[in-house]
Design brief:
alpha/beta; 11 helices; 340 residues; 9-stranded mixed β-sheet
């Protein structure tokens, strides 16, 4: 059993996760992008290509296509103060830290996260971010992200929620995280309690991409959050070689619902540097979404979205079922329907 997080290519070789002849190749990747694989994920990687593909570095990450960009969804354009992204009128992202428990090889913030990325917010920067939120009564929801906010200490999470609790117009606080699946032992009763504050509704958005991520420990971690009265939604990135087959995606979405986690977004992979080997086409994603309709419960249906490059926001890009006076049923048959 791996006892610690693996952070270098040498660690991966020593743990038997990659062959020794790949060491030099992977050191070139690690010099560019952060590496971290938790014990929970390291146990799943042997004999599981989908899990290895998500977390083990590959030389293809150094191949950058012309349309890829360091800030693929335009966070910087909408960042009025450090740590805040205000893209939509009623909600902001609060990026309290820029470290993660694991570093996914397809990450859309891969230029910003990790030990060589953007520094965590200083006390004065956090004060400025909180002042920005407090000064804008249209902000109804604060989405705490990063990095991964659930690697913060219980004390820091409690302090963050206490500060948000003092801002009356903020009603919802949402945490985006991978920790319940990649490092489930961190989800202690104390951490869960720290996510709640009087007068605020807390949600947790869980990022998981493959049904094998849901080990018994991960399921128990999610249950601790849910049993505390904190609802959960899912976020999944559509990834070639990981979940781009209908059976895998169906199994993942069913697993979410079985665990009381509502499927929320299926993200088309962003144009982050060195991630072309993960991206499907939009047509492939739409075909997968069409295959779900009528086959799995409506509870299992996420919204397939594309984050428009340049900071223009998310757009639903699922298949269209109606147009020109016809509607397509789940079996692909056309039916006439009045247009007025």
């Amino acid at each position: 059993m791996t006892a610690r997080t693996l952070r270098t290519p040498r660690d991966l070789v020593d743990a038997g996760l990659v062959a020794s002849h790949r060491l030099a190749e992977l050191e070139g990747v690690a010099a560019r992008y952060a590496v971290a694989i938790t014990p929970a994920m390291a146990e799943l990687i042997p004999d599981n290509d989908a899990m290895a593909r998500q977390f083990v570095p590959a030389a293809a990450e150094l191949d950058r296509t012309p349309d890829e960009r360091a800030d693929p969804i335009g966070d910087e354009i909408h960042s009025p103060v450090e740590g805040i992204v205000h893209r939509y009128p009623d909600r902001v992202l609060l990026k309290a830290n820029h470290a993660c428990a694991v570093y996914c090889r397809f990450c859309f913030r891969r230029e910003m996260v990790g030990p060589d990325g953007v520094r965590p917010l200083s006390p004065s920067q956090l004060d400025a971010a909180m002042a920005y939120i407090a000064g804008r009564p249209e902000i109804w929801e604060v989405i705490v992200t990063g990095g991964d906010p659930l690697i913060l200490s219980v004390r820091r999470l409690r302090d963050l929620m206490a500060r948000l609790a003092k801002i009356d117009h903020v009603k919802v606080v949402r945490f985006h995280t991978r920790v319940p699946v990649v490092d489930p032992a961190r989800i202690t009763p104390g951490l869960v309690a720290a996510l709640r504050a009087p007068g605020k509704t807390t949600w947790v958005g869980l990022h998981a991409n493959h049904p094998d991520e849901f080990t018994p420990a991960a399921e128990a971690a999610c249950a601790r959050i849910l049993d505390a009265g904190i609802p959960m939604v899912s976020q999944t990135v559509l990834l070639k070689g990981v979940n781009d087959e209908a059976a895998t995606l169906e199994a993942l979405l069913r697993r979410f619902v079985e665990l009381r986690i509502k499927p929320y977004y299926l993200h088309h992979a962003d144009l982050a540097p060195g991630t072309a080997h993960f991206r499907t086409t939009l047509a492939e994603g739409q075909a997968l979404m069409r295959s779900l309709r009528g086959k799995v419960s409506g509870l299992c249906q996420p919204t397939y979205v594309l984050d428009i490059p340049g900071g223009h926001g998310k757009a639903p890009v699922g298949p269209c079922y109606a147009g020109d006076g016809e509607v397509t049923d789940p079996g692909g048959r056309l039916h006439a329907y009045p247009t007025a």
